[in-house]
Predict the structure.
Amino acid sequence: MRPEEKARIVEIVKIFRRLLTYSFHYKGRLFAGIILSFFVALFNGVSLSSMVPIFDSMGNSSSYRFQISMTKRDLQIINKRTAGEKLNTIDKIEWKIADYKTKINSHFASLGADEIVFLFVSLVFPIYILKLICLAGAIYFINSTGSMAIRDLRLEIYKKVQTLPLDFFVKEKTGILMSRIINDVDSLGKVISGDLKDAILDFFYIVTHLLLLLFLSWKMFFLVFFVIPVIMGPISGFTEKIRKATKNQQERLSALNGHLQEMIAGIRVIRAFGMEKRESSKFGGINQELMEKTFQGHFYHQVGPSIIELFGSIIAAVLLAFGAYLIASENFSKGMFLAFFMTLVFVIRPLKQMSMMINLVNSAVAAGERVFEILDSNSEIQNITNPKPLPAKLKEIKIDNVSYTYPGTSKPALQNLEINIKKGETIAFVGPSGGGKSTLKDLISRMIDPSSGAVYFDGVDIRDYDLKGLRTKIGVVSQEVFLFNGTVRENITLGKNYTQEQLVKAAEDACALEFINSLESGFDTPIGENGVMLSGGQRQRISIARGILANPEILILDEATSALDNESERMVQTALEHLYKNRTTLIIAHRLSTIQIADRIYYIEDGMIVENGTHDELIKKGEKYKNLYDYQFSTT
Ligand code: ADP
Ligand code: MG
């Protein structure tokens, strides 16, 4: 075996092992399913063996008597007993069995052939019912194990996804992520429920039925599994020939096609240079070959079925002849011969199915690889094990030489940023889109960690604080509003406890109260999937109300008012200005009219700070900020 094949198999085994660990959480069920599967195969084998006396008795009116064969040991032990020798415990059990056999045989001897047939036919029926019950049980237990395992896997991925680095959630990747959680997990589910059940059943069918075949006649067994494949050998060679001939024929045909095209396209050149003869003989060669290959293909195709038929009859003849020989010369009956063939049918199907499993395994492995890749990917933002205590009130934010490059990109989104922010300051960030402002927001709220440099809150790297605690201190209201399917109230409170007064006040400050009251059931109106019932401006005001109500120490507004018209923006703006007073506020703004009151303004372009100062200072400076300012006021 080549090393890469070996590696592949190791990989496959690893994935299946891992997949099955999810099933092993439900050991009891799985085990019950496996035991029942064994009984399904066993009962099938038993029902097949009872064909032996049925077929043997049929038509053998009075002369035939069915008997269970007695082994040498059986006879020995009976003799020992009749001779009055002392028997030990094992001997006693053996004698019991032998004695039982004798009794059954004497009962059988008293029955006519018709009665034997009737006895076994009435025995087969309950066995089939038992088999059906076991099968239903096996399907129930194995499939339910699989379904539960997949439910657990899906939940695990879901939890994992919530911790994945943000670059997983770029638009193009979202589809892939969804497909993995839905389609790939689904195909894994099929494998560890339905397919696993098939594999277990097939396995037991193969083992029990091969044993039965061996038991019925090891000579026939040898013939079927070792001699016949050798006889069949030439047939597979022949089908290969047919395949090749067809392929050759197609190749010649396309060569002919190519030559014709060349000749027609180049007819002027061919004539001008007198190349007709040479081209004709070339064509003649291809044409001749096409004729030969086509003929060969047709010949094999038409003769093929008869050849296969011939081999079929040879095999049938060999089997019948050998069977007849065995029946004549040995303890092998016609009933056993028939039972042998019926059993063979039951082995061939699972054997074939097993070979088809390979495809299933391959697709499951591919799906498994993709799913486990998600589970194994690092959560970019790791919570530290021994976090430093967060100060009750934060005094300063220091962004120290921070650079950030998105994974998979080469150009840094932010480069060597230096910013100091004191408690209570209002800081604005402006600049062209794509400059890196939203990236900066994600760094401060620790949605991402810097590629180099660090963000400090009160002199401590924010990676040393507890992540959850840190995030409760920061409220982000951004341009992308996320609303979930619930009521207005639920969307503003996010399930936390607030008084009605607090809620109303927040809605009022966000200029949202008026429209909320005009809704059918006010705060208790359901807003549909991601707020489909609301306009863009209304959605944004709900998200602002949410930010206001949470009352965070640090408020970050990332183009939070961009979806509002000028009128409502001015109104929300006044409300927000109250909020700025007693907290640290970072405003990322698009319209400069909203940030003139800021203590400091940073102009960010291409990931770098180009200018900073107060509004008046920057206007006086008369560069980028002023240009942007003039531009906006000339157009609005
Ligand atoms: P702004 O908010 O100033 O418009 P951003 O911070 O959104 O700018 O983007 C800064 C740069 O980083 C842009 O060049 C943008 O294309 C890139 N960028 C933003 N998000 C991602 C991401 N998830 N993966 C890769 N590149 C990104
Ligand atoms: Mg942005």
Q: What stands out?
A: The chain has a mean pLDDT of 86.
